[in-house]
Design a protein that fits this description.
The complex is a heterodimer of chains A (461) and B (96).
Chain A lengths: L1 H23 L4 H23 L7 H21 L5 H30 L4 H29 L12 H21 L3 H19 L7 H23 L2 H24 L4 H6 L7 H5 L7 E2 L2 H9 L3 E6 L1 H5 L3 H13 L3 E6 L9 H8 L7 E3 H4 L8 E5 L8 H4 L18 E6 L19 E5 L2 H14 L1
Parallel strand pairs in A: 1-7, 2-3, 2-5, 3-4, 5-6, 6-7
Helix pairs in contact in A: 1-2, 1-9, 4-5, 4-7, 4-8, 5-6, 5-7, 5-8, 6-7, 8-9, 12-18, 14-18
Chain B lengths: L2 H21 L6 H12 L3 H8 L2 H5 L1 H34 L2
The chains are: A alpha/beta (461), B mainly alpha (96).
């Protein structure tokens, strides 16, 4: 028996190691696919070994569950559009959250039947369930916002923060009650409050802050797995959950830094609702409009241009049109690079995936720090559906809400063309000073149609 | 050292490992990173199997249902997460 538990523990260690190497593979696109296979192997080892445990029975039930997951999960993953990745990730986070709640509930019921409950176990159970519940409903709201089921605008109401504080207080007090006199009712009551809290935490956060929210929920799903590991005293779950938890935490940090905001500021929400007056007070200035022919003429005669994609490219599904433009210009000997701001899109790395989908070589896709020195020597820049991330006010205007945010220095290039649907300001509600620069022209229209229009002009000549 | 303290050790050290490994991930692959961590966090399936497979689940419909639903949800994540990550990474590979 002693040997047996060590064999299981060793197999779990192998699985943990495989996950670590799997994540390490993502340090470069060349090793990433192999890394994913290592992670899959880790999961395979973990599942097979768990099924072999002497305390595991009811194989029919378990296999039915695994099979149902495969039947639902595989087609979903095969069919999902790359522009809808943020929604898929949010939905999957919610499943992990709910699973954590269910496992905590089940574990509690089992231990209660056995009469084997210790205060430590009860604390671990209630923490696991609460984190899982917040992850579950928080991710549901994030999903609804990303999918457009509810408006992506921040939903703020009076007393919101007081209510949240009250709920957190309620969770703490009831958890203490649960540990003192454990009852199933109190356990589910704590879980219910945590479910409400998850809703309320994400509701006030607006669409453009979604990269932070999705990263944060990613982190929570890891902590939920870790907490479950504590309740089961399972080191595989503890270690693996910690890997995922720190991953999400680091991504949240990177996203917040890219917006020059603190995590607390994002979580408290409401950004983009209070600055409208500031935007409206700006004096009427003139900006230039340009046609696709103008842009095509400038691009054709350039040696190098930089394309700045943003969420608008995803909305318009313009990534394939952008690729056509890339090829048409390459054909004419123009060097084309892409500049990616960390918070462009609705999740970390969103733009990179869309460009990869349209088969643009990743060597031509540059990150903020690498590309910024290039703008000054670029003959032209094309901004496709991005706004705040190219607003020079972030550098120059101390009164702007964007001040201090790292931006892409598009304004430094000789010519800037911005594809825009309308004159509406960006998400932050701040007017974009770039539009009034002498070197900037706006091309009004749908990002996809405009890109196709430029390509047609290039081909016609 | 109590079992809980051992667990705390493992948790803390794993956080450090995670910290160093994740900072090494190239920003271009942050979306597949989220997708794969989605799949990996479904390691919860181990807990779900233990609940569903418990002898107590045999006589309790409630425990059975909790366990079955948890296994199913975790399994969606495992299959969905790994398959979509594979799809994304294949796109990055094509162009090299």
């Amino acid at each position: 028996m002693e040997l047996n538990t060590d064999v299981f523990a060793f197999a779990y260690l192998v699985a943990t190691t495989l996950f670590i190497f799997g994540l390490k593979g993502l340090s470069h696109p060349k090793t990433a696919l192999r890394g994913n296979r290592l992670s899959m192997a880790g999961m395979g080892v973990a599942i097979v070994v768990t099924l072999l445990r002497p305390d595991v029975h009811n194989y029919g039930l378990i296999f039915a569950g695994l099979l149902a997951g495969a039947i639902l999960g595989v087609p979903l993953a095969m069919k999902i559009q790359m522009t809808a990745m943020p929604q898929l990730v949010a939905a999957l986070h919610s499943f992990v959250g709910l699973a954590a709640v269910l496992v905590a509930g089940g574990t509690y019921l089992i231990h209660a039947q056995e009469g084997a409950v210790s205060p430590v176990l009860l604390i671990e159970l209630v923490i696991g369930s609460a984190i899982g519940a917040v992850t579950f409903t928080g991710s549901l709201v994030a999903f609804a916002k990303l999918q457009g089921l509810v408006g992506s605008a921040p939903l703020v109401f009076k007393g919101q923060h007081a209510l949240n504080a009250l709920l957190i207080g309620g969770i703490v007090v009831l958890s203490a009650v649960f540990v003192g006199a454990h009852s199933a009712t109190v356990f589910w009551a704590v879980t219910a409050i945590a479910l409400v809290l998850g809703f309320l935490i994400v509701l006030p956060i607006g669409g453009s802050d979604m990269p932070v929210v999705v990263s944060m929920l990613n982190s929570y799903s890891g902590w939920a797995a870790s907490a479950t590991g504590f309740t089961l005293n399972n080191h595989l779950l503890i270690a693996t959950g910690a890997l995922v938890g720190s991953s999400g935490a680091i991504l949240s940090y990177i996203m917040c830094k890219a917006m020059n905001r603190s995590l607390l500021n994002v979580i408290l929400g409401g950004f983009g609702t209070t600055v409208e007056q500031a935007a409206a007070s700006g004096t009427a200035k003139a900006c230039k409009a340009a046609s696709t022919e103008d842009a095509a003429f400038v691009f054709e005669n350039a040696t190098n241009i930089i394309v700045v994609p943003g969420y608008g490219m995803a909305v318009a599904q313009a990534q394939h049109a952008v690729k056509e433009l890339y090829e048409a210009l390459h054909h004419k000997g123009v060097e084309v690079k892409f500049a990616i701001h960390p918070v462009a899109g609705r999740m970390p790395g969103h733009m990179n995936v869309l460009l990869a989908e349209s088969e643009i070589p990743y060597d031509d896709v540059l990150e903020l720090d690498d590309v910024n020195p290039e703008f000054a020597r670029a003959d032209a820049v094309l901004v496709v559906g991005a706004n705040d991330v190219v607003n020079p006010a972030a550098r120059t205007n101390k009164s702007s809400p964007l001040y201090g945010m790292p931006i892409l220095d598009a304004y430094k290039s000789k010519m800037v063309y911005v594809i825009k649907r309308s004159m509406n300001p960006g998400y932050s509600g701040v007017e974009n000073e770039l539009f009034y620069h002498d070197n900037c022209s706006l091309i009004f229209g749908d990002a996809k149609k405009v890109c196709e229009g430029i390509v047609n002009c290039l081909k016609a000549e | 050292m109590s079992t809980t303290m051992v667990a705390v050790y493992i948790f803390t050290l794993a956080c450090f490992v995670g910290y160093h490994v994740i900072w090494g991930v190239t920003p271009a692959l942050h979306t597949p990173l989220m997708a794969v961590t989605n799949a990996i966090s479904a390691i919860l399936v181990v807990g779900a199997i233990i609940v569903a497979g418990s002898t107590h689940a045999t006589d309790s419909i409630l425990i059975q249902s909790l366990g079955f639903l948890a296994v199913t949800l975790a399994s969606i994540n495992i299959f969905g997460g790994f398959v979509v990550t594979n799809r994304i990474l294949a796109m990055f590979k094509k162009k090299s």
